[in-house]
TrEMBL record:
InterPro entries membership: Cyt_P450 (IPR001128), Cyt_P450_CS (IPR017972), Cyt_P450_E_grp-I (IPR002401), Cyt_P450_sf (IPR036396), Cytochrome_P450_Monoox (IPR050196)
Family in the record: Belongs to the cytochrome P450 family.
Pfam families according to UniProt: p450
Protein name: Cytochrome P450
Annotated keywords: Heme, Iron, Metal-binding, Monooxygenase, Oxidoreductase
Length: 435
């Protein structure tokens, strides 16, 4: 018996539902089968719901797949960076970047994370209202620029954060468009996109020139790694630009969105917030960063639960250029597969009361199947900076939570906005309340 099911609705209805409410579309498909054929004709498209098939695609048979359309769209902005490169080129880039995320490197980043978060904490004023999303975007942009580029963006971080946001919004529109127009076509969207890229490039090329002239100031940074000698290939300024843009877009917007969702849930779940405050009030931040991190198990559970309900990488897309067999099912060349962690993480058969925010799910050793929960993807293309992101999120929450709690100015339920990563529509205006 085949493990592939045919969708019950028409292609036109599926497209309308997908465009109207993309996340609800994937949730609706979740219980219709392990793999759902969308009956798209010459180039078959499938929705993957089964953890077994997710593992097969991302890990066991990953060499049979490319990222396809998502890379095509993102390449317009970030060129051939780690997020868009394929096969051997991807492995070379990953090998070069890996030292940035070794334990000792992350250890050195924590001081920057704490200092930048303390600067934000000092800026906040009692009972003032802030867009949490905007504040988190600027904070994580400052952190990534200092840790990865040894660059202080204090004077321009708001402008650059807006540029990143514009790129994300335009890329998301392209991702879901039937036709992707070249950036050379002077549409309003393309003009905004190119202007935003130019703003980021101006900063990036300044850093590259400065790193060449003052290499000692850029030791153990991304830019210095790619300017280094003795590797199997030499990287051009344009290739370094691609890696820096990739890190800017993928390395801070995702964490900012996750933190925004967590502040939203802490406000809605007073018992969780109280337990969180009780834990962080007992932590001494002057100790070794990893000792401090280990002293925050409940905070880590909060982050894991945030990643379950609101995975920044809400959709993973793969294409099979050649015929591929997955668990006894054969798929022809050109087949595409959509995997939605957002939907799969809401499977009621795996996670009881799946739509509720319950950090206690992660106490002990959870017994759910592998790839029923996979916020950082899997296989060779899993997120290279996952450990850095987890520690960054924990320290930001703990430092801000020591002094403030945040309260939404609206009682309306937040609406997820599935762009390149999962944003909260409206930015989440919240009042800062002194504890």
């Amino acid at each position: 018996m085949s493990r592939v099911s045919n969708v019950q609705t028409s292609r036109i209805q599926n497209y309308i539902d997908f465009r109207k409410d993309t996340l609800s579309f994937f949730e609706k498909m979740l219980y219709q089968g392990e793999i759902i054929s969308l009956k798209t004709g010459f180039k078959p498209s499938y929705i993957v719901n089964s953890p077994d098939f997710v593992k097969e695609i991302l890990v066991a048979k990953d060499r049979f797949f490319v990222k396809g359309r998502t890379s095509k769209v993102l390449r317009r902005t970030i060129g051939d960076g780690l997020l868009t490169s394929e096969k051997e080129e991807h492995e070379i880039q990953k090998k070069h970047l890996q030292p940035l995320f070794y334990k000792e490197s992350i250890h050195s980043y924590v001081q920057t994370i704490k200092e930048e978060t303390q600067l934000l904490e000092a800026k906040l004023q009692e009972n003032h209202t802030y867009s949490i999303q905007n504040e988190m975007m600027q904070l994580t942009l400052s952190i990534i620029s200092k840790t990865m580029f040894a660059t202080d963006l204090e004077e321009s971080k708001q402008e650059l954060a807006i540029a990143v946001s514009e790129i994300i919004e335009q890329s998301a529109k392209d991702l879901f468009s039937i036709v992707i127009l070249p950036l050379s076509v002077p549409t309003q969207g393309n003009k905004l996109h190119k202007s935003a890229i130019k703003k980021l490039e101006e900063m990036i090329y300044r850093v590259i020139v400065d790193a060449k002239n003052k290499p000692n100031l850029y030791q153990n940074t991304l830019v210095n790694i790619f300017l280094g000698k003795g590797y199997e290939k030499t990287f051009s300024d344009e290739e370094i630009r691609d890696q820096m843009l990739t890190m800017l877009l993928a390395g801070h917007e995702t964490t900012a969105n996750l933190l925004t969702w967590i502040f939203y849930e802490l406000d809605r779940n007073p018992e969780v917030e109280a337990q969180f405050h009780n834990e962080i009030d007992q932590v001494d931040f002057s100790k070794d960063p990893f000792d401090t991190y280990r002293a925050l198990p409940y905070t880590q559970n909060i982050i894991q639960e945030g990643l379950r309900l609101y995975p920044p990488a809400w959709l993973i897309y793969r294409e099979a250029p050649q015929k591929v067999e997955l668990l006894g099912e054969t798929f022809r060349p050109g087949s595409s597969f959509m995997i939605s962690p957002y939907a799969i993480h809401r499977n009621e058969y795996v996670f009881k009361d799946a739509k509720s925010f319950k950090p206690e799910r992660f106490f002990g050793n959870p017994t759910w199947p592998a790839f029923a929960y996979f916020p950082f993807g899997g296989g060779s293309r899993s997120c290279i900076g996952s450990k850095f992101a987890l520690m960054e999120a924990a320290f930001i929450l703990a430092v801000l939570g020591k002094r403030y709690k945040f309260r939404s100015v609206s009682q309306e339920k937040a609406i997820p906005e599935p762009l390149v990563s999962l944003r909260l529509r409206g930015g989440l205006p919240m009042r800062a309340i002194r504890r």
